[in-house]
Amino acid sequence: MAIVSLKGLTKKFAETAAVKDLDLEIGDGEFVSLLGPSGCGKTTTLRLIAGFLQPEHGEIRVNQQVISSPSLLVPPERRNMSMIFQSYAVWPHMTVFQNVAYGLKFKKLSSNESEKKVERLLQLVHLETLRGRYPAELSGGQQQRVALARALVVEPQILLLDEPLSNLDANLREEMRFEIRRLHEEFRITTIYVTHDQAEAMVTSDRIAVMHQGRVIQVGAPEEIFERPRTSFVAEFIGRTNILRGRLDHSGKLVLGEGLVVQAAAQESYPREAEVSLCLRPHNISLVGSASEAQEWQQKGYNLFSGVIRRRTYFGDTFDYMVELPVDRLTLRVIAPSSRRYELGQKVFALAHPDHCVVMGQG
Amino acid sequence: MEAVGRLRVGSWRGIRTLDRTLPVWIGASLFLIFLMLLPLGWILVASFRGEEGWSVGGYVQVFTEKAFLRAIWNTLIISFWVGVIAVVIGSLLGWLVTRTDLPLKRTIRALVMASFVTPPFLGAFAWTLLAGPNAGLLNKIYRSLTGSEEALFNIFSMEGLIFVMALYSFPYVFSMIANVCELISSDLEDAANILGASMWRVALTVTLPLAAPALLGGFILAFLHSLSLFGAPAILGLPASVHTITTQIWALFQYPPRLDLAAAFSVPLLLATMLLIALQKKILGRRGYSTVGGKGGERRLLHLGIFRIPAFVLVLALLSLSVFLPYWILLKAALAKAWAQPLTWDNFTLENFKFAFFQYGDTQAAILNTFKLGILTATVGTVVAALIAYITNRQLLWGARYLTFFALAPLVVPGIVLAVGLFLAYARPPFVLYGTIWILFIAYLTKEMPIGFSQAETTFKSIHPELEDASRILGANRLVVLRDVTAPLARAGLIATWCFIFIGVIRELSASILLFTPKSKVVSVVIFDLKEEGQIGVIAVLGILLLLVSFLVILAVQWAARGEILATRE
């Protein structure tokens, strides 16, 4: 059992706050990603959880017990956590076996017992044949596996990962994402994973916490974050998107401009007359050429935007269009199957289901 | 995984949550601050202390009495010319070795290293045998060749002193220039070549200006080095009645000692050193110097053409002045019954070795003391330097970066000034160390701290902090991390630290000369004493011993560094 809760966490470096008043609950056995651009405070948050840093305000609890606060800091070595580092931090003066076995030294196990555990982990990460090698003789991916095995062999209560894949090449990175998820399904250790790569977070996580300027701005399952972003920062950081500014009218409809009114989802959480933004993913928009077809869709409840094709890019299976709307020179990016083809300057109708038109706060 | 790990929450309250290694860090820091502040504080206090109460009388006397002013003036003249000559020789050699196709470059580097390792007082002594006005070997050769009655050289003179000090100061400039030349990429020079400049013109208009800050920095370094030397001026200057600041301070310590004047005289030397180091930092820190660096482009070597062999001969001639001739005369003096006669079988003897190692009590005790102090200081010094460097590098304590200042402070304190301070601090209660080898230990520890600290700091910088974090999170406290991860990874660097301190200690004279007592002599002091007695053979034996041990230790560093390459390969 390890439930981690961060409350009002604040950490400053030279008067600028790296982490500001951060709240986050992580359930037992849950895999949560801290996702954000560099400098958003995600690594600082992780190092706060690990106990390498002490917060100026707020506290960290594990199973209700305070382990970090401005007045108390349980040192990292007594937190029963494991961590995987961006640089792998595999010790160059120890063999693969010695690296993996290191953490068990502090666990008071018989040497027989610990050897078994190490062997098992080495098998699990496919390193059993390399046990006698030194890290200098391993590839980056193999070193990463050593780091994984070393972190898991001690059966930690909480596993922390700090951009563990960012130093690997693209193919290996993709493979290791699944590997990390597989190991999580196997061990179900409460895991906190720091990354700036949305795909990594999507593949591995139960929930994603998007961070921006030292704060968590949205937490949720990957689909939820993607489909219901709460701010334009989240929408833009995860996936491509159109963002249009507008205002809610008295009936909850979204007014984007003169005569451009949209039926949108998630508007309930905002007051009437609020200034908001619309998030509309390019692949959730369909294009049709004929007015009558467009009207049919509109009657089924779809939102209709009429406009003119201004740019077209061919991507093999899709076209990437830019459609200019007649209102305020607004543009929509649309990704549509390449089976249908529209020409530059052609008048088209863009259709989007209200469920895909997500109202967000501005900012 | 079964839920094995339960958080050990119960024991987390109160004092137990404190980092248990904290006392080690705080202890080391306080020790360092104490070590540095005590002697310097005493110098300041003593310099304002007249016979009755506070006064500035000491300063007034130092800056009005002719003899003192003369010593200051001599010091400035000597240091200036030493700086100039060292820059000429050092930069010429540095450039030739890094940027041209000079033959046997590695050997030349090794020989420059040998000049660097040779204690200047030993070089000065050897040069008294080579160019003393009467018995000096070179003068004898000159007389027998020309039939003249005159001496060609008189090493006991201002010029002789400048010459010898420059020979042992130029390696400082050399290493600076060589470093810079290695950083200037050929691209920069190519750019000028393409514009039509000739090879020599490029060297003059591009390479030289790029190296200018290093030249100036090197000049200041050589200037500072000669400012703080005691042995060479004492051996070569005093017979010619040329006093420098350091020999004057030493003289003030002779009976009847005038500690107030010595202290007052130390302060200007201290201030001058501080000023110059600040100046040097500013010059080297300016933009341009570092932007030359980076990985930028490869370097091509300049083809010297017909100058290749003459240049090589010139280099060998220069190095024979600092290495070959002195070493040869020392060896000869050590092995000969009469050092001034040719070394034939009749003149050959091992008596000097026997006498130095087995018969003469003073030298035996001194050798023992020197190596005892060398090992002790190097060991304690490495531990303290490593702890301090670790604290500053990993920011373990609040205000850790100020510790750097304390660790480097002795850089600005000439050895003899430090000795004045230590004498004042440790010759009275509560710390009565004078008369034992412990005051020497403290002196060496203080004096070698900057070298030890810089070396250790470089070492720790190369170890990624995450390597340590990885150990901590798995259950190791800070000290265990040091043992399991940091120390093994820093091993080669720390061995080098140990060796540098050791070499520094066994050759130390300028602080020892004020702090030794008959019961606590060291080799350098004995050499200085034996000089008065004319025991030339024994001095040569001791000198050779110092040199041999130093070279062995340097080989050990290189051996350790080779091991390092394997460990840090990633």
Kindly describe this structure.
- The complex is a heterodimer of chains A (363) and B (570).
- Chain A is an alpha+beta fold and 363 residues long.
- Chain A is 24% helix and 34% strand.
- Chain A has helices at residues 42-50, 96-101, 111-124, 140-152, 170-187, 198-204, 222-227, 232-237, 291-299; strands at residues 4-13, 16-26, 31-35, 57-62, 65-69, 72-73, 81-84, 158-162, 190-195, 207-212, 215-220, 242-248, 254-257, 260-262, 275-280, 286-288, 303-314, 318-324, 331-337, 347-352, 358-361.
- In chain A, the strands form 4 sheets. Chain A has a 6-stranded mixed sheet with strand order 7-8-9-3-10-11, with helices on both faces. In chain A, strands 2-1-4-5-6 form a 5-stranded antiparallel sheet, with helices on one face. Chain A has a 5-stranded antiparallel sheet with strand order 14-13-12-15-21.
- In chain A, α3 (111-124) packs across α4 (140-152).
- The radius of gyration of chain A is 25 Å and the shape is elongated.
- Chain B is built from 24 helices and 2 strands.
- In chain B, a hairpin with a 2-residue loop joins β1 (427-428) and β2.
- Residues 1-17, 287-296 and 565-570 of chain B have low confidence and may be disordered.
- The interface between A and B is large, with 47 and 34 residues.
